[in-house]
Design goal:
By secondary structure, this protein is an alpha/beta fold. It has one domain: 3-Layer(aba) Sandwich (Rossmann fold). Helices cover 48% and strands 20% of the residues. Strands 2-1-3-4-5 form a five-stranded parallel β-sheet, sandwiched between helices. Helix 1 links the parallel strand 1 and strand 2. It is globular, with a radius of gyration of 13 Å.
Amino acid sequence: MASKVLIVDDERDLVDAFVRLLGRSGLDCMRAFDGQEAICLIDREHPDLVVTDLNLPRASGIEVIRHVHEISPDTPVIAMTGQPDSDVFQAAERAGARVCLHKPVVLAELTTAIRGALHG
């Protein structure tokens, strides 16, 4: 059975590109375009992994990470941000993100982080 991955970002083209790439790797991908939509999907679908931007409308990426760990502490989260501020990454890690990636995300880095989170 394929692992379920939730991709969360308000940049629709980026989400679509990630879904295409990860789908070719055999992952079952879901999409959310804001934090509140992500939280609803997490509650309903219980993904095996969440990849989220930190700067989201309606609920922040930090709120998404916290929600994941409230309902499923073992579910890994990969955070992404275009903000160069290291405090943002530290906040994501404190909330429970396993990996933090700078945007623009290098696809090879993302796939390596996903493989490590799902199988490590």
